Amino acid sequence: MIQSPYVLVLFYSRHGSVSEMAKYIARGINKTNGIEAKIRQVPEVADTTKVAAPALPDDGAPYCTLEELADCSGLAIGSPSYFGSMAAPLKHFIDQTSTLWLTGQLIDKPACGFTSASTMHGGQEQCIHSMMTPLIHHGMVWLGLPYKNKELISTQAGGTPYGASHLANSTHENTLTNDEKALCEAQGKRIAEMAIKLKK
C-alpha cells in the first residue's frame, strides 16, 4: 500500500499552547492539495531514569515513532521555550534519531519550527534556533515565515520570521490571537507547498 505524503507536525506541549498552534499549522497543511498533516507528540521525560511512559498518551495526539519521522515529506516541530531552548522531552526524542542521520532519511526535506513562551522576550526566536540546529545536521531545508505575511508586522503578540510563535500571558493561557492563528496557518501552508515541490 502506497502511503499518502504527509507533513509531520511534531510537538511537546506542557500547558496546551503549542498543541493549539499545532492544530492551526495542520489546518494550513490540509488546505494544500496532495498532502496531509499528521499530528504527533512526544512523551514526558521522567525525572527518574528507566520510568517508562505509557504506550499511548492519556489525551491528545499519539506519540511519534521514528518511522513516522523517517517517512514524512516535511516536518513542523514545536516546543515551549524553556530558557531560550526547546523542552527536554522534544530534545530527548531528537537525540534518538541517529539512525535516521546515518541513513540520510531526512535529507532535503523541508522543516519549520513553532514555539510559545509566557513573556514577550522569553526566548521564542532562540528556541526555534535550538530546534533548527539538529535538523540542519540531518540535511533538512529550513523554512521561516516571510514578511509577505502581513501579520508579522501587525502582531501585538507572537510571530517571528524564524517561525510561528505565541505569547501566552500566563503559563495556563493558550488562546491564540487572530494574527498568531493566521501565521500558524501560513507556516503550515508554506511547508506543505514546499514539501510537494521538493518531492518532484
From TrEMBL:
Transmembrane segments: none annotated. GO terms for molecular function: FMN binding; NAD(P)H dehydrogenase (quinone) activity. It holds the Pfam family FMN_red. One of its GO terms (cellular component) is membrane. Residues 7-192 form the Flavodoxin-like domain. Keywords: Flavoprotein, FMN. The keyword Signal does not apply. It comes from the Bacteria. PANTHER family: FLAVODOXIN-RELATED PROTEIN WRBA-RELATED, FLAVOPROTEIN-LIKE PROTEIN YCP4-RELATED. Belongs to the WrbA family. This is NAD(P)H dehydrogenase (Quinone). It comes from Marinomonas polaris DSM 16579. The lineage of its organism: Bacteria, Pseudomonadati, Pseudomonadota, Gammaproteobacteria, Oceanospirillales.
